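Q: I'm writing up a methods section and want to include an example of the input and output format. Could you take the sequence below and give the corresponding predicted C-alpha cells, formatted cleanly so I can copy it straight into the document?
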Amino acid sequence: MSFNQEELQNYCKYILKQERIRDRILVLCEGKILKEQIRISRSPESYQSQLNQVDQDEKETPDSSFYKKCTPDSWFQFDLVPKFFNCGNCDDVIKSYFTLSEIISQDADKKYIHPKEIFAIIDLDNQIRKINNYPFKTTQEIFFNLYENTKINKVNAEANHKIWVTGLIHKEAYFLIPELQSFFDRYQPQFFYKNSKLLLQDVYHSMILEMEQDKNLAANLEMISPRIKNCLGIDFNNLDQLKDIWLNLFKNETNEDKKREIILSLLTVIKVKDNYWKNIKPEQGLNFYQHKEQLELEIASKFYAKQTDEEAAAKYHIPYFFKMLRKFA
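A: Here is the clean output for your methods example:
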C-alpha cells in the first residue's frame, strides 16, 4: 500500500521530529513502516508515543536494519552511524526524499530537526520508476550511471547521487553472491536449498533452467536487455536465446572473474527474493524467520561491513555507498 498525500506529509514530519537525526546523515530505505498498527493519517504527535515504544531501527524495519549492519565498524567508534528509516515501497521512498527536502527548505524558523544530509537507497527491480526534478529521470538511468560491468563506476559515484539504486535486482540478491559460499559453509545452523546443503552454484543453475517460467522476466525483456549488455556486453533477441547464452557461459567459462560477471548479471534481473532466497531454509525444526533474519544481519556485519578498501567496495556495491556517505559524516 502506497502513501496518500496526507500520510506522506505526516510521516515525513514524524521523521523530522526525531532528535536522533540532528546533524546526522539520514538514509531512507524500502520497507514496512507499521501502517497496520499505526494510523499515520493522524497527526505526527498522535502516534509519536506509540511509535517510540518500538525500536524503529531494529524490530520493525528489516531493510534499514540490514543497511545499518553494513556500516563499517569505524563509524560506530566515532559515533558517525547514519540514521536509517523505512519509508514504504520504492515510490514512497522517492516521494519521502523529496517531501523531506521540501519541508526542510521551507523551515526557516527551524520548527523541525534538520539532518546533515538526506539520501535514499532503493531496489533496482525490473520496473522502471520515473523520478521528477532530479538529474536522472528514472531508476534505470541511475543504474547505468552508477554501475559498469557489475562494479561501481567510481568516477560517476563521486557525483551528486542522493538517490542510489542497488546494483543487483534487490537487497536479497546480495545474500547470493559467489563470495558468500565460504560464509555459508562455516555458518551454523546449516542452511539448505531444495533439501540439500546450500551450494550457490545449484541456485544459479536453477535460475537459468527455470527462467522460462519467469513471467516478470518475459514481461520486461526489452527493459532488461540493455542491463544485461551493461553487465556482459552481449545481445539477445528472446528469452530462449538468453537462456542458451547464460547456460553455455555458465558451464564453459573457466575464468573466475568472468564467471562472477555472468552470475551477477543473473542477480541483476532474476527476482531472487520470492523464488530463491525464500527457499533457502535452516535445519528442520528451527524457527525459519528468526534464523533467516539472523543470517541476513550476520552477512551484513561480517561480510559487507568489512569490505572497506576501495576496490572491494566497488566490487560489492553496498560498501561503496558508505564510502560515499563518509564524505558527509
